[in-house]
Amino acid sequence: MILNNNTTGTHTNTAIQFRRNNVAVGGITFNNASTNYATTSDYRLKENVAGLTNALDRIEKLPVHRFNYKSDPTKTIDGFIAHEVQSVVPEAVIGKKDAIDENGAPVYQQVDYSKVVPLLTAGIRELKAASDKKDAEIAELRKEIEALKNQ
Known about the structure:
extended, two-stranded antiparallel sheet, 151 residues
């Protein structure tokens, strides 16, 4: 299937919209410059919203690997192993470890990497806060050293 955008400007075209009970929950849109794969994230759909804490502790539990797929041994990439992610960010993993279908064929797990981004963002914020605190401590120590030198 080819979807063609014949409009000009920033007009957005909906290629696919996913709905549940007639409410959009995600979709694929495109315009002259880009394609967007989106999950609904409107505040009006959410409740019990709280800040994400202890992100670095969870990030440390995410093994990151370099590997190639058996189907393309010449291309090495960075990524995760689905069942390892499942214990840390379960909403990012589709399927069950070692699942097979009714014919005994593997049903492979999948990772939605976008579901890991909030955890990584929270981790970056935690690192920045720790860095800012250390910078302030270092600045204070430098002032104390200067004061001692001037005595």
